[in-house]
Amino acid sequence: MLIAVCEDQKNDRQLLLEYLNTELERLRICAEILSYESGEALLAAAQKLSFQIYFLDIFMVKTNGVDTARALRARGTEAAIVFVTSSRDYFAEGFEVGAVHYLVKPYKKTDVRTAMERCIKQMGKAERYIEIVVNREKRRILLSELIWAESNDKVCWLHLKSEDVRSYIHLDELQQLLSDPRFLRCHRSFLINMDLVNRVDKNFFYTIDDAEIPMRQAERTRMRENYESYLFEKMRRRD
């Protein structure tokens, strides 16, 4: 995820960056934040970069935040826009460009939290991650990269799109860390990412890496129903 902060006041810009980094860590979202001091600089960067979220100060010299947002929308961006302002006089303009939130100065950390949560809700699934120990070092694993996991005693193998990694973590603990509806504990020893399943039959899930993942024998019907319900809800959200 790429986030742009456009704020011409240095102290305000640094405070917002601090709060945003705190929230990204809390939400376990992988993102890069780039900051700009003017609307002109941001618009130039946005011609080459694809931002998913914009934090725009309204009162800037030359191109203000509202005009910057209008220019971005004119280019066809559907990114989430949050206005940062010391006045409530521009709420109508925010509605015009589809702003998801206003941060009114002086704002608190909890205000930035609300703004980020609204942005993520609009965007859908963001690039969340978990941190586990691999080869005695902490490592971030993107949820979108994890296809399936299996446990063998105290060892857990995580099968990613690019590689397989081993961690001394119990599958119960991994499931708690993931805490995401796309993951299904289909068996005592297996967990799958339902977004990365190719097909399913009476006994197995077949993942995009051609793995054959068994279902709990006594709960096969319920496992298939859970999978079908997830797909239905996923399609409903797209409509």
UniProtKB/TrEMBL annotation:
Query: TM segments?
Result: none
Q: Which PROSITE patterns match?
A: HTH_LYTTR, RESPONSE_REGULATORY
User: Can you give the residue ranges of the HTH LytTR-type domain?
Assistant: 132-202
Domain of life per record: Bacteria
Q: What InterPro entries does the database record attribute to this sequence?
A: CheY-like_superfamily, LytR-like, LytTR_DNA-bd_dom, Sig_transdc_resp-reg_receiver
Q: Which Pfam families match?
A: LytTR (PF04397), Response_reg (PF00072)
Which SUPFAM superfamilies does this UniProt record tie to the protein? CheY-like
Does Hydrolase show up as a keyword for this record? no
- List residues, modification 4-aspartylphosphate: D57
Molecular function (Gene Ontology), one example: phosphorelay response regulator activity
Q: What keywords is this UniProt entry annotated with?
A: DNA-binding, Phosphoprotein
Q: Which residues form the Response regulatory domain?
A: 2-120
Could you confirm whether the keyword Protease appears in this record?
no
Q: Do you know which Gene3D superfamilies this protein is assigned to?
A: 3.40.50.2300, LytTr DNA-binding domain
Q: What does this protein do?
A: May play the central regulatory role in sporulation. It may be an element of the effector pathway responsible for the activation of sporulation genes in response to nutritional stress. Spo0A may act in concert with spo0H (a sigma factor) to control the expression of some genes that are critical to the sporulation process.
Q: What is the protein's name according to its record? A: Stage 0 sporulation protein A homolog
Organism source for this protein?
Eisenbergiella massiliensis
